[in-house]
Write a structure and sequence with these properties.
Helix content is 32%, strand content 25%. The chain is α/β, with parallel strands linked by helices. It has two domains: 75 residues, Ubiquitin-like (UB roll) (Roll); 158 residues, Cell division protein FtsQ/DivIB (Rossmann fold, 3-Layer(aba) Sandwich), CATH 3.40.50.11690. The strands form two sheets. It has a ten-stranded mixed beta sheet. The protein has a three-stranded mixed beta sheet with strand order 1-3-2, covered by helices on one side. Strand 9 and strand 10 form a beta hairpin. The termini are far apart.
Length: 291
């Protein structure tokens, strides 16, 4: 007579064999189904749509599948896609900050792109030009770009061997660019920013024949507030052509050199000192043009 314990062991083994067979069947079915899934479409999305995109969907597609027609991945087995490799290919584009490639439940291949954000246009003394983004990356120019940004000239930093002073300069360039871009008046008024050998900044302006010396300071708000007060005074007195140099390096004064001075003089008798604590209005008429 078969013992009860033996029968229980047999049932126990049969139970787990059935469970194991079921799981194996589901796993194999899933693998087979996965292998038969096909890509239905490719959807490219920019997660930070800007007024002007430095890259477009055609460029993204060409980076992923160079020389292929746009119908190429459709119908291809989803299991054959190396999604990680596709992401790595995209981030090699100097204008792409991040890329995320994945399939959804409908077997649509999604390509999500985050672009780099240029904040200034840079020109070197040799005539080369770049963009710089908000993370201090230098970006190449593109033939199709049409973008209005603050311009910096005499740029000299070599990304391959940056020093601490170079990093500080890049930080000041980005900071000043953001300040200018956030104020429509200054974006229209400032023609370019010259970078001196000592890393000081000098502004060339659209209205007036003067140069604005910012020195190596970085307190943009108080300096430009003083400059705006001074411009209001110029507008009231019709004296836009009176000065050749406006020096904003001093905390309590704006020092101006007259246009008829042949050389920049340190003699204070040749300079006009304009106190900024006078009750002058804070706004200038941006439509004013010197006569």
């Amino acid at each position: 007579m078969i013992k009860k314990s033996t029968i229980l062991k047999v049932f126990h083994i049969l139970f787990w064999l059935i469970i194991g067979s079921g799981l194996s069947f589901l796993l194999i079915s899933g693998i087979v189904k996965e292998q038969t899934n096909q890509c239905k479409a490719v959807q490219i999305d920019f997660k930070d749509e800007k007024l002007i995109n430095m890259i477009d969907r055609k460029e993204v597609y060409a980076s992923l599948w160079p020389g292929r027609s746009e119908l190429y991945p459709v119908g291809k087995n989803t299991a054959s896609f190396d999604l990680f490799s596709l992401e790595n290919t995209l981030v090699k584009n100097p204008w792409i900050q991040e890329a995320d490639v994945y399939f959804d439940n409908q077997h649509i291949l999604h390509v999500d792109i985050k672009q780099k954000n240029p904040v200034a246009r840079l020109f070197t003394a040799e005539g080369y030009s770049y963009y710089i983004d908000d993370r201090y990356n230098l970006l190449p120019l593109k033939q199709t770009d049409h973008i209005v940004l603050p311009v910096f000239t005499n740029f000299y930093v070599n990304p391959a061997g940056m020093k601490k002073s170079d990093s500080m300069l890049l930080a000041r360039v980005v900071s000043l660019s953001n300040f200018i871009s956030n104020d429509p008046f200054w974006l229209a008024q400032i023609e370019s920013v010259y970078i001196r050998p000592d890393n000081g900044f000098e502004l060339s302006t659209q209205i007036g024949d003067h140069t604005v010396d910012l020195g190596i300071r970085s307190e943009w708000e108080p300096m430009f507030k003083k400059l705006k007060l001074l411009y209001h005074k110029f507008s009231q007195e019709d004296s836009w052509s009176r000065y050749a140099l406006i020096n904003l390096q001093f905390r309590d004064q704006v020092v101006c050199e007259k246009s008829d001075a042949k050389l920049l003089r340190t003699d204070t008798t040749q300079l006009d000192s304009i106190q900024v604590n006078q009750p002058i209005a804070n706004q200038i008429n941006p439509k004013y043009k010197p006569q």
